[in-house]
Amino acid sequence: MGQPHTSTRRPRRAVPTALAAALVVVSSGCGMVGSIASADRLQLEPISVSSPRLRDGAVLPSDYSCKGSSGNPPLRWSRVPDGTKSVAIVADNNARAGGEVNWVVFDIDPRTNEVAEKSVPVGAVEGSTTSGKVGYAPPCRRGQSYRFTVYALNGKIHLGKGAPLSRTLKEIAEKTIAWGRLTAGHIQ
User: Fold this and answer.
1) Edge-to-edge strand order for the sheet containing 101-108?
2) Where are the domains positioned within the chain?
3) Which residues make Cβ contacts (< 8 Å) with residue 131, sequence separation at least 6?
4) Element (H or E) spanning 170, and its range?
């Protein structure tokens, strides 16, 4: 679907909106989980995120939605800062209310710089999504933006497969030292 496109954002002393919004989306649907104060104090560096199948701001191909069978899209990232101990990926929609997390992968080796279509890097762990599914839960909401955010972390998460979403997101927020995002405009 065209050439890879790089998206880089550089926030100032704040936890990325996607992660903050995702912290609100817990299985009970009630309130903020835990504190993100430690991540809030960090000066976050940008990570460049791209994909051979997605372009930033373009339509999410139906292959990666609930209509398709390709599973997660391939992602690539670069400019992970020195001191990164692990990498995490969170895929969510950009809804202000009723947002959902479609994929969480953590404890990715910091030397890894890509994930192939319909796969998880060796040694990485998938947590639960908003729906409770472990693994990639293809998005279905038309008219929503879908974000694939890569986080560089200053430590491993050390949670097991299927770890609760609220706990996983809290751990990611507390350990984030850099992040980058690729956003698909809506489902094709």
Assistant:
1) 45-46, 176-184, 146-153, 86-93, 101-108, 125-126
2) 17-184
3) 100, 137
4) helix 165-175
pTM, rounded to two decimals: 0.78
Between the CA of residue 141 and those of 134, 137, 138, what are the distances in Å? 19, 12, 10
Residue 28 phi/psi, 5° resolution? Answer: -80, -15
**In this structure, which amino acid lies at residue 145?**
S
Q: What is the pLDDT of residues 155-179, one digit of tens each?
A: 999 999 999 999 999 999 999 999 9
Bridge partners of residue 121, in order along the sequence: none
The dihedrals phi and psi of 167, each to the nearest 5 degrees, come to -70, -40
Domain 17-184: give its CATH architecture.
Alpha-Beta Complex (3.90)
105 contacts 151 by C-beta, under 8 angstroms:
no
Q: Which residue is listed with tokens 């489902």?
A: 187
Which H or E run includes 148?
strand 146-153
